[in-house]
Design brief:
Elements lengths: L1 E2 L10 H13 L9 H21 L6 E4 L2 H15 L6 E5 L4 H12 L3 E5 L9 H7 L4 E5 L13 H11 L4 E5 L11 H4 L3 E5 L10 E5 L26 H15 L2 H19 L6 E2 L8 E5 L5 H10 L2 E2 L13 H6 L3 H4 L2 E5 L6 H17 L5
Parallel strand pairs: 1-11, 3-4, 3-5, 5-6, 6-7
Antiparallel strand pairs: 2-8, 7-8, 9-10, 10-12
Helix pairs in contact: 1-8, 2-8, 5-6, 9-13
Bound molecules: pyridoxal-5'-phosphate.
The site of pyridoxal-5'-phosphate has 13 residues, from α3.
Length: 377
């Protein structure tokens, strides 16, 4: 099988799975227990937090474990809107955020919040100036992702953070860095966001574990899950020790020779662009600089058919920003693509282990689809 869908999820390296198995079998104590088994589990959670925090460039006390990126995104909203409940009920975000954000915003609109959704330009970019121009005196929260999961565009979060100080110093800033963590260089300390969402399964970790950085400007964050006091009382529930160990091991592995890994992914992406350019009429949808995401379209060839054909050939790609049940994704819609271009969007995404041979196979399969099927639109 050729796996080219690393933005959806990533293969779990054997060392990560082994470490999780070891924890499940040998270190299954509850971190809240007072005997040695509990202390051992507590230490494991503390070590895991330190490892992830080091990679994120923050103090361990600012990093909280959650169940996934979606939960981190939602908690950031809960905490920010609670802290700024007297600032106002206005939120600024983008029209190309992950559904975790957009769906939360739709609910908030029903609760009386006003949300400004910024649309990107044709290259998928959103400027810091556009974000800052939308901020008002009653803006409680700005939420702009670090890397878009469908286009690979990197958004100017540090610039937004710097500009917010002058525009409205009370406004809190959240960034969904699920596709940015260990894919583009940044550190929590210098990024300047008040909340940063992470997810382990995008970097070789297990599903079911994420992280949320909460910065110093957030006083006494609104607990996501009140309960037994875990995660400093803010996100209760017995810690998922095996998942935390897996997350930490994945971070440890990914950060080894990270620069070389990112360089490799960028080269793979460049090579994929070279090979796919051989397909007649193929359009490059993503113009982003993130090294792992490449969205393209064969105009008129419905993406689901492309994905199915490649799947039959043992190649996994995704219908990325394509039509879902006849409706274009938020990203496709926001980019204002022509209908037949939007209908044909597929996403290839890469990891450190992706090879040129795998790209060759995908390029051949896409070309074969183009040459043997008829466009439907
Ligand atoms: N945010 C972005 C940008 C993502 O790409 C994803 C996953 O696809 C998520 C959030 C959600 O993360 P999780 O699957 O851990 O809930």
């Amino acid at each position: 099988m050729i796996y080219l869908d690393h933005a959806a999820t990533t293969p779990v390296p054997k060392d990560v799975a082994d470490e999780m198995y070891r924890v499940l079998r040998e270190e299954y104590g509850n971190p809240s227990s007072q005997y040695a088994y509990g202390r051992q589990a507590r230490q494991l959670v503390a070590d895991g937090r330190q490892t992830v925090a080091d990679a994120l460039g923050c103090a361990a006390k600012n990093l909280y474990f959650t169940a996934c990126g979606t939960e981190s995104d939602n908690w950031a909203f809960t905490a920010a809107l609670w802290q700024n409940r007297r600032v106002g009920k206005h939120i600024v975000t983008t029209a190309v955020e992950h559904s975790a954000i957009l769906e939360r915003c739709r609910w908030l609109e029903q609760d009386g919040y006003e949300v400004t959704y910024l649309t990107p330009d044709r290259d998928g970019n959103i400027s810091a100036d556009a974000v800052l121009a939308a901020v008002r005196t009653d803006t409680a929260l700005v939420s702009v992702m670090l890397v878009n999961n469908e286009t690979g565009n990197v958004y100017p979060v540090a610039e937004i953070a710097a500009g917010l100080k002058a525009k409205n110093e009370k406004t809190l800033l959240h960034t969904d860095a699920v596709q940015g963590f260990l894919k583009v260089p940044f550190a929590a300390k210098t990024l300047g966001a008040d909340f940063i969402s992470l997810s382990a399964h995008k970097i070789g970790g297990p599903k079911g574990i994420g992280g949320l950085y909460i910065g110093e400007r957030v006083r006494n964050p609104r607990p996501l899950l009140p309960g037994g006091g875990q995660e400093s009382g803010f996100r209760a529930g017995t810690e998922a020790t095996a998942q935390i160990a897996g997350f930490a091991k994945a971070v440890e592995l990914r950060t080894e020779h990270l620069t070389e890994k990112l360089e490799h992914m960028a080269q793979i992406k460049a090579y994929a662009m070279e090979r796919l350019a051989e397909i007649p009429d193929l359009r490059f949808i993503s113009k982003g600089t993130a090294p792992h995401v490449l969205s393209v379209s064969m105009p008129g060839y419905p993406s689901q058919n492309v994905v199915n054909d490649l799947s039959d050939a043992g190649i996994c790609i995704s219908a990325g920003s394509a039509c879902h049940q006849g409706k274009p994704s938020q990203v496709t819609a926001a980019l204002g693509l022509e209908k037949k271009v939007a209908a044909g969007v597929v996403r290839l995404s890469f990891g450190p282990e992706t090879t040129r041979e795998e790209i060759d196979a995908a390029a051949e399969a896409l070309k074969k689809h183009h040459d043997t099927r008829f466009p439907m639109l």
